[in-house]
Amino acid sequence: MIEAQLLSKVIDENSFYTLTKYNVRADDFEAYPHVYNFVREYANTYHQTPDYRTVVAKFEDFDYMPDVTDSFAYLCKTLKSASAKRKSVIRLSKVNENFKTMSGDEFTKWLKDEATALEALARSSSTTATNYATNGEERKDWYQENKDQVELSYIPTPYNTLTEWLGGGLALGDMNLLMAYTNRGKSWIGSDFGNVAHEHGFGVLHYSPELSKKQQAYRNDTLRGHFNNVDIRRGRLENEEAYFEYLDQFNEKNEVPYFIKTMEDLPNGLSTDVIRADLEMYGDSIKLVIIDGFNLMKHPKMGREGMTATSRELRQIFGRYNVAGLVIHQTPTSAEKEMKTDEDELEVEIPVPQITDYSETIAVIQDSATVLTFNQKDGRGRLMLAKCREPHVGKSIDLRCNFNLGYITEASPVDLF
Questions:
Q1: Confidence at residue 343, expressed as pLDDT on a 0 to 100 scale
Q2: Which of 62, 315, 370, 413 is the most buried (most CB within 10 A)?
Q3: Residues 218, 319: one domain?
Q4: Could you tell me which of 394, 409, 350, 390 has the C-alpha nearest to residue 171?
Q5: Chain segment 89-136, per-residue pLDDT in tens
Q6: Domain endpoint, select from 77, 95, 127
Q7: Given the DSSP bridges, would you call strands 154-155 and 396-402 parallel, antiparallel or unpaired?
């Protein structure tokens, strides 16, 4: 059944080289190795798969199945799993024979070697690798996808200059880090990223364990609608009719989600298990995950070792679920105190944290594809690109920040003086 489904899908979609991606070979087929070999030779010769009628005419035993909807990933992994089980049975069939002919030491060693080989076989059936030597056709497809879907692969940032420097924005699958000193507005910057992403059609999952649900929602309202944040929280807006009209836009017609999880939703704390479970539940609707407070997460162990393990897991989760992750981390106050800056220097440039100013662990910096460092004083902000893949490391943008009214904008040259 699986063999017929997979080969039929390969033929119908002209995708033989997808089998190479998942390391599917002739010996993985029990019923149709001859059909696989024919399709492979045909594809190698004519650079396309044969018509299904050609295959059916040549192999009467082949049960062609049109319109297979299961994914290649599922079909290939199911086939590899069945193949691994079948090969294990074949290997173990020699137990009685070897028990009779081998000495005790020889038989014990043989069993140990077989167990190791079977374990490796089982693992290989559940994981895949990219064979660079053979996946030229697949890389052509990747390139075409890059041309056709560049807007779907990057999430734009709130700041046009930064988006340009990052080659389009935050890449799906990457872990990104925002570092700042305490009480300088890093949560506002993170929320700005989330709202701009959502306004561009990307689903957001926003963990804000330090705030209440109302506080985080009100910050979003301030950033989007520029309603006075203090007045919203006190219920004293002078333009409350405009606020109510603005709120009417947020209804069941909106298909792109913006999920907020705060202290009320996290009774046992925020952990990688919670994030993984949420991404499983929400599926492909989420493209940006914001974690406002790496130090507030529940780590598997105390201290640096636990934080390192969490960072490694986050990087894997973001890659596995193809989401961009924005992790917000507090730079220690001691680093700020060590950075001595007089008032004259502040008139020229706001000092920002350096990537060497990490606190409990350096893993969050090592694991992040992009590191942004931020500081703000009296409405003047500076956001520096401290680490990235693009040739813009060390560059920074100046911002004008009025958090209470939700304005975080790039400063014009006139604003700087």
A1: 47
A2: 370
A3: yes
A4: 390
A5: 666 677 778 777 888 788 787 777 776 665 555 554 444 555 566 667
A6: 127
A7: unpaired
Q: Return the amino acid letter for 317.
A: I
Phi, psi of 258 (to 5 degrees): -135, 95
Q: Is the pTM of this model over 0.85?
A: no
Report strand pairing: 407-410 vs 396-402: antiparallel
Binning pLDDT at 50, 70 and 90, where does residue 1 land?
confident
pLDDT at 260: 93
Q: Are residues 105 and 163 in the same domain?
A: no
Closest of 76, 64, 66 to residue 18, by C-alpha: 76
Local structure of residue 375 (DSSP, 8 states): E
Q: Compute the distance between CA of residue 356 and CA of residue 368 in angstroms, rounded to an integer.
A: 14
* Cα→Cα distances 235→220, 231, 291, 403, 407, Å: 16, 6, 28, 18, 21
Instruction: Tell me the two tokens of residue 361.
Output: 């662990």
Query: Do 156 and 20 sit in the same domain of this protein?
Result: no
Split into its structural domains, the chain has a count of 2
- How much is the average pLDDT of 386-405? 93
Q: Which residues contact 397 (CB under 8 A, 6 or more apart)?
A: 159, 161, 162, 382, 383, 410, 411
Length of the chain in terms of residues written: 417
SS3 category, 24:
coil
Dihedral pair phi/psi, residue 33, rounded to 5°: -65, -30
Per-residue pLDDT, 415: 45
Distance between CA 366 and CA 362 in Å, rounded? 6
**CA-to-CA separations, 222 to 33, 213, 350, 351, in angstroms, rounded:** 62, 14, 25, 27
Say if CB 231 and CB 221 are below 8 A apart. no
Give the DSSP H or E segment for 199. Answer: helix 186-199
Percent helix / strand / coil, the chain, rounded to 5:
50, 15, 35
3-class SS of residue 175: strand
With contact defined as beta carbons under 8 Å apart, do 183 and 189 qualify? no
| Distance in angstroms (rounded) separating the CA atoms of residues 291 and 276 | 13
